[in-house]
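Input.
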Amino acid sequence: MLTFGVQYLSVSIMEARNFITAREMLTDGNWLLTTMNGEARYEKPPLPTWLAAFFGMIFGIKNLLAIRFPAIIFIAITGVFTYLLSNKLLNNKNHSLINALIVVTSFYVIGISIEAPWDIFTHGFMLMAIYFLFQYLQGTPNNFKAILIAGLFLGCSILCKGPVSFYALLLPFLIAYGVVFKFTAIKKQILPLLAFLIIGLIVGGWWYLYVRVNDPATFTAIAERETGNWSSYNIRPFYYYWSFFTQSGIWTIPAFISLIYPYLKRRVSNTKAYRFSFIWTIAAVILLSLIPEKKSRYLMPVLIPLAINTGFYIEYLIRCFKDLKDKRETIPVYFNFGLIALIGLAFPIVGYLFLGEKLSGYKFPYAIASITLVLLGVLIFVQLKLKNMEKVFYLTIFFFAALLISGLPLSTALINNNYKPISNLKEDTKKEAINVYGFNYISPEMIWQFGDKIPNITQEDGTINFPDEPVFGMLANGISPEHQELLLSKYHIEKVATYDLNTSAKDSKSYRGRLVNTYYILTKK
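Output.
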């Protein structure tokens, strides 16, 4: 679903940070004391970056599909272990497959792999840990193999993004398990559960200890800054996450209905399992709401239990929709899936109007996308009329996959004329034997596309460390009058080019000034 078009998407700021660090692992050997643009980068643990570097080592660090492939693999792993956990919970392969397909087609499960590449890894590993922990809790007390594997995956999750998934995914799971299944043999389970935690802390904590011992000052400063952000950065009200179900994208309406517990509890095929997924979902949202710092992407782990919860509603529709007479039950179904079908039918017209003249070089992918989506739209409408919800569901899955496969290549047609990449600058300056430095802020996306480190000559206290070279290149994101006067007193300044990595127009709300840098050549007077 993703390998056909993910390389067409622009590199996000979080991705760029990860990829730069992976590149410097390969070029500078900074595998443990990780760096970004030559400076310490300890904000995030290194496991996802090691995976990106490994694929970059094999297929080339500039190969976007290759270094994004580990994240794609973990989307698949999230689907696989949602299926396996659901099957342990339900003992129903068809229902479990529904849950798995919902999770891998949920909007933010896909989006998080691009927007914040660490998240899909930390939650993917934690879901694997939960699966084996669930096996232990539901099996025999002597099942130490399950505890050992669960502890290993817990540690891998910590080695991806610290204790984030422990709080956002594991703790809500344990709350839900305790409420629904009870810890009936807790006295016998205390030592294995302690072993689970200890193994996880050892596997996940050794890197933190290594950095703390080898670079204590930098590690402490970064840890204090990161901890401070939890209570002083991106502060949002408690109810900020209340629309969390919308993050599931095409499943927004089914997800919302699945959360109406009094309505669905009498209709599901397994009340106990439904209560478990419901409590797991709500507990995760409440726990995340307690933290002052809030971002939409932090909701991604909620989509895992929410997919299981939504699966109960979809399974109910597959069983009973043909017999439903109450319009209060049928209208939301017709609206949700009818809207998806309508998008398919409208795609050729909307695509033509939206892309206009830009379609001239994209006629073939546009035609393929239009034919595929229109056909699927028609089939969804036909099956809706026949009230065959099983086919409607699977056609919706195919629709989502087709939209990504055929639609992502068309995204390059949306790139605005102001877009000017910096990818050739490194080669040009190498021919001229000129080193390039940064002045003020240089975005990670710019550094990544440049292909090498861009040392910054401006320090945090505002002072400037001028290079020794008589001639050097300089990228700047704006120069104040004071700094311009200082530079002119020492150098002849030649403005060479302006690089703009924005794919949207300058009058667009999504246009970012930080993605614009002017390149100068400075010659000492």
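Residues 186-214 form the longest helix (29 residues).
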